[in-house]
């Protein structure tokens, strides 16, 4: 692992871990933000979980995925999980925002949304970071090209053996 990744991953993960711990310590506060999102989901499908349980579950996911990202284990998967849980936070918070809030409360909410958005950007970058190795798409494309080349060579050899050119 490069020195930059060695330093950057724990720095990025720290905010997510802290958020997850806060969700576990005070799930009721987090439930207020995911509640409206859960209500929207219940209009479409039956969701057999309450907002407090969802808040705790996302807290556990954030602590676990953040810890894994910090130590460099399954960093792309961990970052993807963090993106998903933080999207719940961000969208839920925006849905639960009271329309009658003061200018100061709106300013704080907008700053928090900007912070969350920047953290999401960092996690998205971590989710697609292959650490200089070829990604799945590149490997698949090259494997297909190699397979096609093998099929062509085998076909030419078979036709040559049959005396058909």
From TrEMBL:
Lineage: Bacteria, Bacillati, Actinomycetota, Actinomycetes, Micrococcales
InterPro entries assigned to the protein according to its UniProt record, in alphabetical order: DoxX
Membrane topology category: Multi-pass membrane protein
Cellular component terms per the entry's GO annotation: membrane
Keywords, alphabetical: Membrane, Transmembrane, Transmembrane helix
Cellular compartment(s): Membrane
Record-given protein name: Uncharacterized membrane protein YphA, DoxX/SURF4 family
């Amino acid at each position: 692992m490069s020195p930059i990744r060695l330093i950057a991953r724990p720095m990025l993960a720290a905010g997510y871990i802290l958020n997850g711990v806060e969700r576990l310590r005070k799930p009721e506060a987090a439930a207020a933000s995911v509640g409206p999102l859960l209500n929207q989901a219940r209009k479409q499908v039956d969701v057999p979980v309450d907002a407090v349980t969802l808040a705790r579950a996302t807290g556990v996911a954030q602590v676990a995925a953040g810890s894994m990202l910090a130590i460099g284990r399954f960093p792309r998967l961990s970052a993807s999980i963090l993106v998903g849980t933080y999207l719940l936070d961000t969208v839920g918070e925006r849905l639960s925002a009271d329309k009658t809030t003061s200018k100061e409360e709106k300013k704080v909410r907008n700053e928090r949304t900007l912070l969350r958005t920047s953290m999401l950007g960092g996690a998205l970058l971590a989710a697609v970071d292959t650490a200089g190795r070829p990604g799945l798409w590149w490997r698949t494309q090259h494997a297909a090209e190699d397979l096609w080349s093998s099929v062509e060579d085998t076909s030419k050899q078979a036709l040559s053996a049959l005396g058909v050119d």
